Fold:
Amino acid sequence: MVTRDDYRIDEKPTWCPGCGDYGILTALIRALVEHNIAPHELMIVTGIGCGSKLPQYMRVNGMHTLHGRPWPAAQGAKLANHGMRVIVVHGDGDGYGEGLGHFVHAVRRNPGVTEIVQNNKIYGLTKGQFSPTSEKGWKTSTSPYGSAEEPAQPLALAITHGATFVARGYPGELKHLIWLIGEALEHPGYALVDILQPCVSFNKPRAYEYYAERVYKLEDEAGYDPNNRTAAWERAQEWGEHIPIGIFYRAVPGPTFEMLDPVLKDSTPLVKRPLGKLGSAQVDSLLAKLR
Amino acid sequence: MIENDITIRIGGEAGMGLESSGAGFAKALVRGGLHVFGVPDFYSRIRGGHNFFTLRAACDPLFSIADPVHILLALDMESVRRHIADLVPGGAVVYDSKDPLSEALRREDVLAIPVALSQLAREIGGLELMRNTLALGIAAGLLEFDLSYVESIIRDNFAKKGEDVITSNLNVIHKGAEIAEAYKADFPFRLHAVPNAPQRILLNGTQAFSMGALAGGCRFVSGYPMTPGSPVLVWFAQNGAKYGAVAKHVEDEISAINMAIGAAIMGARALVPTSGGGYALMVEGTGFAGISETPVVIYNAQRPGPATGLPTRTEQADLLFMLHASQDEFPRMVLAPGTLEEAFHLGWYAFNVAERYQTPVMVLSDQFLADAFRSLEASGLDFDAVEIDRGALLTDADLDALTERYKRYQITESGISPRALPGHPNAIWVTESNEHDEYPRIEEDAQNRIAQQSKRMRKARPMAQDVPPPTWYGPEGAALTLVCWGSTYGPAREAVDRLNAQEAGAANLLHFSGLEPFPPTAEAELRKAHKTIVVEGNYTGQLEILIRARTGLSVDGHVRRFDGRPFRPEFILAGLQEA
Structure:
């Protein structure tokens, strides 16, 4: 049995006291333990930003890649070794800003990868600029007159592009978040868990007090059907006085990106196959086309 | 009669099927025991414009096309206009008789063969598109080339389309040869098949490199279409699955290189094929591979730029860009094959170097090398010589025996750290793009930075021993030495042959296929030359700059080309007059 000790490492996070990333880290490890996933079976691929340092703060395989690029690296990792579990973790500036294109294209492919987003609606590591998910009119160091952009809608985007598991969590509701991550890990295809991450240093108006008063769980709402794609798409854009958390949309996924590949389909992971010289029959078949 | 070494040019608009019929005819010539060199010259468009395909055939091996044309097959009047001047005296022009040849386009010393190409193609073959087949039939007839080889290609190429299609193509070819009968007496050139010649292969640089990469264990290819690099992605997409190679066309080049890096970290030999503009988007990823010490092979088939430039044309102007791409410093290898044999060899060799030194390796091709066809002996692609060396890769048994925490970036004397692949319980680590310590933890300490940066840079020393040294062609101690890199080898080699045919010992050639680390033997080799002229396809003389930077030596002159067209021996010889 996997225990929390398996994931323990002697490394102190560089996050501010009270940062929402602590809760996300705790929830992730507890979900992994509950679902009996060992560190060596797992690859956590992150971008660049405060939250993307997460794999350094647990004992786990990771790729701490480039700002905006965790998705391509994660898909390459999954294609090369589909026997390994791959989780993508990134922030809003990273994956919904610089990496928004990669995000949409990744969702379209349905890779067997779980995506966890530390969405604090601000750039923290560079000290407080508005982000792709900041509300319109948000005043920051680079938007002194208020930002001009509508916020990106990652949950609705994911639903639109074929995602079959789309959820939002909140570290103030830790048990609920652990459950959500666990459900995402069990989903046999691409799964998104976007997390409202309070940033206590650079986005004080969107810290715990704000969310605590507004979040409500979709699971508590009688009659909410997470299998209704249109309703999920609409609910994914609700924001303001009431902010939904929970599973917005869940459906049975089709085959994953890996399993649609003719080389990988129902077969040994690429990197587990012997790598040798081509046989003479293979060489002959290559040369035959050239004669 | 003049035999051996004949050039045929077929010209028309995009969409007329020039390349496929030209390639088919080239294959027929190869089956007929001849050596062939073929170059497509295409505009970046799907329809219209002016495209042509030049096919040179001879009894001896060829390394270049040459200027004089013996037969011009003009599918439209634009082809006559553009190429009539290229015909040798006594050459022939075949054109569609529906448009009369204007007085200005007539040449007294050229045989004019007006044929109702479109009409006959429709009548006999049922398709106007077959006019190129008809024209090639006329060419075969004029040259007295044995039609049975052309027939065998038609049977093979149209086997899947059925007997009717084969028959109509055969009828068209025979009609062409029949037309040629009336003109043969006035045409002094012949190209007879060489019976009992060894069975040869016909391929281009794209195919040679792709097969080399596959043979070298490349099992993951991610790319985004960009001429002239994407043919390698297409080759793997079409052929890879059969040999266990995954090929993905992804959303952009940024994704392509980061996907390859992700796959490579897991342990797959990974390749990104692109052209210069696509590589520009991969620069960030290259740096990530550098600091994370990830083996990845980058293939850049150069075209003229900057930005969109001339998409379907050739140039050698990305050398210094590839050498310096990315912020800060890390070791890399830059290879530039000059021939199909080298493209195949470096195709597999690149993956060994990448894994041995855990760093990016770049292969610089260009449109000329990528697209030009050449015949080779079947043994020219040396599959037996292929080796797969994965460098300091830890086995499961090594990892089972590990008692301490695994250090992915262990400081070693060579700079090479033993590499594990993710998945083993004893080797759990985070690949880092931040500066890091040995484990790696993110670490900003100054001494640690010095230790890690020095460790990475130390790898360049043994790498220099693995870079292919420059090679000589031609007589030792010649009065003149041409110096070249990459695809310029072929035309430069023929220029040297022609100089030596005029005067024995006149010239030789020093060819660079390894450019970074700069080969340690280069300075000594260059010092052997009496007079050095650098021949390269760019404006500023990038190899010349590199030679000066790395050896302190100055060369005596240069021949440069940057009009998007490949070098020809005649261009080099003319340039030498001014150099």
Q: What stands out?
A: Residues 4-288 of chain A form a domain with the Rossmann fold fold (CATH 3.40.50.970).
